[in-house]
Design brief:
This protein has 5 helices and 9 strands; from the N terminus they run E-H-E-E-H-E-E-H-E-E-E-H-H-E. It is of the alpha+beta class and about 250 residues long. Strands 1, 2, 3, 4, 5, 6, 7, 8 and 9 form a 9-stranded mixed sheet that branches. Strand 2 and strand 3 form a beta hairpin. About 35% of the residues are buried.
């Protein structure tokens, strides 16, 4: 009887074309597939909690997979890390009930977007795009408008399947500053493709006084992604944590 495993992984996504496998392109899922083949000499189906885009990183991405026989979680972790590139690390492995699903069992996710508002340097560009002279007080006020249940069609990629449920709930949306970096935190029950990056994009426009915070309400009401045209760079975004019922 097969054994289901839940693995929490972290990765630096800057050099990758996202999480999901896309042919021979360098992706996180392809790297995981290759690690399993090198280890077990067979392909193992991997299911992620969700996709991350090109250049987007993760500190708490979750995957599940089934192995034909039981192997200690510590052994699974050690084996995978020995075959994975150093910018992808398995943090934790757990045995779960066969009904556990990395995506459908998740109850909420936390994303964080970091911006460098100070001097540029060679050690942060991969993780924090530079935006100078932002009005952070205005940005924080606008950020509050995302909290609650809304139709996020206007903040999603135009390529998202129109049959999807665009109604998502944001439980928390707040900003923290540390030195020259600001980090915008979003906790919600689910996120659409490009949603967080478009939300940050409109916040940047608001902080530059290009539009007012009422533009967010306009996008909610219209559902038109052309209005939220600025998509913030992928390298500032991190999937920080995926939450499950205990």
């Amino acid at each position: 009887m097969s054994t289901r495993y839940k693995a929490t992984i972290m990765y630096d996504g800057y050099d990758y074309y996202g999480f999901e496998k896309q042919g021979d392109l360098k992706t996180i899922e392809l790297s995981l597939n290759k690690a399993f083949i090198l280890w077990l000499k067979e392909d193992v189906k991997i299911v992620g909690s969700g996709r991350t885009d090109k250049k987007v990183s993760a500190k708490g991405q979750v995957i599940h997979f089934d192995l034909p026989s039981y192997i200690k979680p510590s052994g699974v972790k050690m084996a995978l890390n020995s075959f994975l590139p150093l910018d992808i690390r398995v943090v934790k492995v757990e045995v779960k009930d066969i009904n556990f699903h990395a995506r459908f069992s998740a109850v909420k996710k936390e994303y964080r977007y970091t911006i460098n508002v100070g001097k540029e340097d060679a050690f942060s560009y991969r993780y924090a795009p530079v935006f100078h002279n932002l009005d952070l007080a205005v940005l924080e006020e606008a950020l509050k408008l995302f909290i609650g249940k809304h139709n996020f069609r206007g903040f999603a990629s135009a390529q998202v399947d129109q049959r999807k449920d665009f109604n998502k709930t944001i439980y928390e949306a707040y900003l923290k500053r540390k030195g020259k970096f600001i980090t915008i935190h979003f906790v919600g029950n689910g996120f659409l493709k490009y949603q967080v990056r478009r939300m940050v994009g409109i916040l940047i426009d608001i902080a530059y006084h290009k539009v007012t915070k009422e533009k967010i309400i306009e996008i909610f009401n219209s559902g038109d992604p052309k209005i939220s045209h600025r998509v913030a760079p992928g390298e500032g975004l991190v999937l920080y944590k995926v939450y499950y019922e205990e």
